Here is the input.
Amino acid sequence: MNFRLPTLSIVLFLGIIYFLYTGLDKDPTLIPSPLIGKTVPDFKSTDLISGENITNKELLGKFYILNVWASWCYGCSLEHNHLMNIYKNNEIDIFGLNYKDEKNSAINWLKERGNPYKNVIVDVNGNIAIDYGVYGAPETFIINEDGVIIYKHVGPIDQSFYNKIILPLMKK
Amino acid sequence: MKKLILYYIVLLIFSNNLYAFETKKYNEIIESLRCLVCQNQSLAESDSSLAKDLRSKVKELIKNGKSSDEIYKFMSDRYTDYVLYNPPVKKSTIFLWYGPFIILAICLIFLFWKFGFKKKIHKENIIYTKNNNEEDFIQENKISNKQIILFLLFFVPIISVSIYLYSSELMRYKISHFFQSKEPVINITIQIHDSLLDKITGNEILFVYARRSSGMRVPLAINIFDVKKQKRNYNVKLDNTMYMINNQTLSSTNEVIIEARISKEKKAAASPGDYIGTSLPIVLESSNYVLLKIDSIVTSKK
Here is the structure.
């Protein structure tokens, strides 16, 4: 007993130190989405380009990517080429959620850089984005045929996102 | 006529009270929701556009007659419990709430058991071994375990209380306000973008500095680090001691821009191919928290 007690306290102490130390490297800004595994929230909006009404019911039955973007968003300019590549591969539809943007600058952005989106859902005041738990553009959701969110990525995507995440999920 | 006036007065008082009640509820709710972009601020304090949106959402929900609990649920359904400063008691948070008390209780039980036990033996020994000094000496020696026990008695509660305080974000926030020093300190979390992370060989140097948002570009505070391979986050502190030129410290201005640059050539001046992240202008308070993303590449000489 006399030998165990100090050893035990030291082990306990080191354990606590380790526990706190591992917390240091964790990224506090990455918040897991509680929406993964749930169906997409209802929304009613218009298409950015055609101006037609669009609701979540029209997106049902497809496996698609929902990309939250805005023309004022710097990270979106970084990922745009990768979205264009995915679009050119022509294997999966990309829908855009235009987050708190001006209509004209959003349309100009797509004219300048190309339009990878099948439809762009307009969200002027950010209300739809709140329902999706968006806390900053760009964010990318992967949604399956049942309308269930199966993946969420925060921040700009790159080529490895397509190869390592989208493709394996599509094959399932 | 009198009735009408009375009616209006009653209406005025009533509507005012209702308004005051709603405002109180509104303030309470936004005080206890975390701003997700800035993280060290509540929704009430933050100026970020998401915080503004969420505030107006809270207002809208109150007007629709939703209760506080329903509003908290609305938020945590979308943004996880992380958005709540007072997380609910759940499987995943039970240790957060009760862990320190459990540890404390275990220690106390252990200590009482240990102390009581030892004391008894000691007393018995005093009677029993009065004529046997040698055995008495051995027993005395064994009780020097007291030092360890005292150590545990003070140390374990301190650790558990500090973990408890640390895990309760609101407390942490309040404490940091309480101990505010007057000299500005900038705590920066630097994040390297994934696409750049793969290109880092480990031979680079990370410069982190604050400069005036306008006027002279000389760094008011600078800190230098070795870059490690595959290390994504760096926590950096800038304060008044890290000046380059005398009298040009963080205290000499109230608005700064933070820049972080990964230099391959290990040079103080930016050169093409360096990775850089620049913050928006920051109004300095005594303690500041900044999240800085290194996400672009220097293309030409500035």
In short: The CA atoms of residues 149 and 155 of chain B lie 10 Å apart. The radius of gyration of chain B is 29 Å.
